[in-house]
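Researcher: Please translate sequence to structure tokens.
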Amino acid sequence: MKKETRFKFNAYLTQLGKIYGVSAQEFSDTKVQIEPSAAQTLETNIQQSAEFLTHVNIVPVDEQVGEAIGLGIGSTIAGTTDTTAKERETSDPIKLTKNSYHCQKTNYDTHLDYAKIDMWAKFTDFQTRIRDAIIRRQALDRIMIGFNGTHRADNSERTKYPLLQDVNSGWLQKVRERAPEHVMGSETKDGATSAQPILVGKGQAYQNLDALVQDTVDTAIDPEYQDDTGLVVICGRKLLADKYFPLVNKDQDNSEKLAADTIISQKRIGGLPAVRAPFFPDNAFFITRLDNLSIYFLADSRRRQVLDNPKRDRIENYESVNEDFVVEDFRGVALVENIVFEDVKETSPETKKEGVASENEVVKDEKAVTEETPTENKKAK
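Model: Translation complete:
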């Protein structure tokens, strides 16, 4: 590391110390417990660094294990009362469904090579660049776990599970395990999920993706949420491409092109807004309100240590937090996966012609037998 870079990096550690209420040296000597107020600021920065996370809840909790806060719709509250006969009675507008959480430790360990830090030292926003590089990756990893996490292993294997499936149980897995009646296209038993493909295409039960979404809302979303205008269809890039590619993959005049551009820009599937999310599984979609998804973190659990490791020519940042991915109300969600786009194969004209010919031959043979029988009977007489 260059001398100029060393000065700037030390200033960065000093600034971290001011934020967390410790000396710069403490970051190298031991893991520093980040105070809840500073942790909340860091969580806000992480949330703001990824657009999708700005739409979900990032909630600090005081207990490692507990019941989810719950944002579900309760009973109706409007009514009338004859107060000369009885007292007015209140109604709870929020229905809490039993749903537990368990904040478990997740490591977000990173490093920056000396060469990269030397390059960034030329810029006036040196400290901001280091901060943004770390929190941006944390934000993206949270989204990845939320949509792909299936379990938590004692020792995660990034090469075997590149989508961080073994770091924590994400939102989709929570639905598979705790609300199987809200899942189409798969079945989960004892933690193992088996595919039950849903066919979409010409001649199938679902002619297109719009029909599948509308039927999913009618059958897999509870009645109190079916008309909720906050419902969206979360999906990945590939599913949107499968829907809109036929509109652009053809020669068309200006008016048709303008109409196609308008349809694509609206990004709606089955009448619901489509939200494209990074790392979402291919050939699947998830219907819910965005504020029905939460990430709980244990308020006093964040730890951090920054080490200068000359043996590897890099600065190492060790950071951890206890967190969990929570679906607030399962009544308002539906997961559809293992969608297969496949048209029913039509019988070719040649095959149909051959089929008709063989039927005629059968009729002809039957007629020959019928005509032959009286002659034989006549001879017998």
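Researcher: Any highlights?
Model: The chain has eleven helices and 19 strands.
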